[in-house]
C-alpha cells in the first residue's frame, strides 16, 4: 500500500501507547514459543561442550598448580582461570557448532510474504551530532536502490535528530532540504529534531513509536553508519509480514568503508570469522535471540506493547536510563511472547567500525556502563532463561578484562612466591615423607596448548570455511592474501589485546566508582595525528608494560619471554595506536594484499597521499 507524501517536516501523528514495563512484576512466566527440535539440540551441544572444555581445562590447571597443600593463592588463581576459561570455551563451542552447520550447508531460509504484502515500513535514522552529508548520502543510495527494486511504495524515511548543537542542527536542516528535493518524489521523507533528548537513542525511537508508530506495521532501525541494500530491506519486511509471532528479526551487519589498519583488521576479522560465530549463535538462540540495536526490523505494535523501558533505581552509573537498551528491549519483547531471531545468511547489511583504538575506547566506555547495568536487570521477573544468558554475556564481555588482569597478576605473584620463598617441606602434622612442591612443566605446556586451541579454534574454523568459499577467498585477495591477512590479524590482535584489557578494566573501575560516561558523539572519520599525540593516552599502558617486564625478569628470563606479547603490546601502545590509526598505512596494507574483504567500497578508496602528514 502506497504511503502518502506530506509537504511538512513530519506527517500527521498516529499515536501508539507505549507503557513503561516493570522489571519487578510480571503476571506470568516467559510466554512459550514453539521451540524447534534443532534449537534444543544446539543448546545441549553448546552448553554441554562448554562444560566439558571448562572442566578439562580447570582439571589441567589443578594438576599444574600442585595438588599437594594447595594454598589460598593457588585456589584464587585456579578460580580466575576457570572463569576466564569458561568465557572462551563458550565462544569456542558456539563457533564449533556454527562451523558444522555451515560445512553441511545449513542456513535459515525464512518464509517470505508476497512482495506486495510486505506492509508499511519506516526506515528510522537516529542521529546525534553526525556529519549530515555522510549520513544522508547513504540514505539516498538506499532509497534509490529501493526505487530500482520497485519497493518504495512500502517505505517511508524518518530522520530522527537528537543533535544538541544549533550549528550542527542548521547543517542537518539544510542537508535535509537538499535530500528531500532529490528523493522526496520517490517516497515520504521526514525530519524531526527533539528539543529534549530524553533516554538518548532509546527515547528517540520511543518518541517515533508513540507519535507516528500507529501508521506503520514495521520499522527498520539504523545507526548513523548503517547501510542496507534494497534486497535486504525487502527480505526483512517480507519475512516479518509472513511470521505473525516475529517481534524482531536481526540481520548480520558486515563491517566496511574504513581504511586505517585497525579498522581494516576488524573488518577482515568480522568478515572471515564472523559467519562461523553468527551461525552458531543463530542456531542456539533460535526464536529467543538478541537485538543489536540497528540493522534489524521490528514489529511496531509489539515494540510499543512490550518494550517501554523503565528508569533504573539508584544513581548513575548503575541507575538512570538504560544505556544498552537493545538487549533489554529484546528480552522484554521475548517475555511478552514475541519471537526474536537472526538471519545470519542475509547479505547486504553493513556498518562501520571506529577508525582507531582510541575512537573505539570512547564508544566502549558507554557500552561498558550499559552492559554492567545489566546486573540490575538480569533478575527481572518473567524473562526467558536465554534472555538472561544474553544479559550475562553482555556483563562478561567487560568483566572478562579485569578477570584476565587479575589472573595475570595472580600468576606472577605465585611465581614470585615460588622464586623467593623457601618452601616448607614438612608442614604441620605427622608425615613420613616431605611435601615436595609440584610443578610439572610438561603439564603446564600441555595446558597452554589447550588454552591456545580453545582461543584460536574459532578463527581457524572461519579460515577453513573462507578457503572453501571461492568468492570469499577471491574477495580476500586469493589464497595468499587470505593467509597473509590471517597472520597479520593474529599478530596485531595479540599485541592490541592487552591494551584493550587495561582500557576496559579502567572502564569497569570507573563504573564501580560511580563515574557516569555521559553521551558523546562518536567519531567516524579517520583523523591523522602525530605520534606524540598518542603518548599521553597510553602512558599508563606503557607504565604497566614496564612493570610487567620488571616483575617477570625478577622471576626468570623464561618468564619474561612468556610475557613478551603482553609486554611488547603495552610498552609499544603509543606506536601501535598511532600506526593502526593511519589511513596511509591501511592503503599500503591493501596494496600489499592484506586485510582485503569482498565488501570493499572501491569508489571510496583514498589516494595514497591521503594519509601522509
| Rounded mean pLDDT score | 90
Q: From the structure provided, what is the oligomeric state, counting identical versus distinct chains?
A: single chain
**Number of alpha- plus pi-helical segments:** 19
Shape: globular
Strand order of the largest sheet: 3-2-1-4-8-6-9
Radius of gyration: 26 Å
Strand content: 5-15%
The major sheet is characterized as:
7 strands, mixed
What is the strand tally? 10
Proportion in helices: 40-55%
Distance between the first and last residues' Cα: 54 Å
- Low-confidence stretches at least 5 residues in length (pLDDT < 50)? 1-7, 430-438, 608-613
Output the helix-strand order. HHEHEHEHEEHEEHEHHEEHHHHHHHHHH
- Category from helices, strands and their pairing: alpha/beta
Account of the 3D structure:
With 613 residues, the protein is of the alpha/beta class. It is built from 19 helices and 10 strands. The protein has helices at 37-64, 72-103, 132-149, 166-183, 200-212, 230-242, 261-285, 300-306, 325-335, 357-372, 385-420, 441-468, 470-475, 478-512, 539-555, 557-562, 564-571, 573-579, 583-591; strands at 121-127, 155-161, 189-193, 218-221, 227-228, 246-251, 254-255, 296-299, 339-343, 349-351. The chain has a 7-stranded mixed beta sheet with strand order 3-2-1-4-8-6-9, with helices on both faces. A 3-stranded mixed beta sheet has the order 5-10-7. Strand 1 (121-127), helix 3 (132-149) and strand 2 (155-161) form a beta-alpha-beta unit. The longest helix is centred in the middle third of the chain and has 36 residues, at 385-420. It is globular and about 80 Å long. Residues 1-7, 430-438 and 608-613 have low confidence and may be disordered.
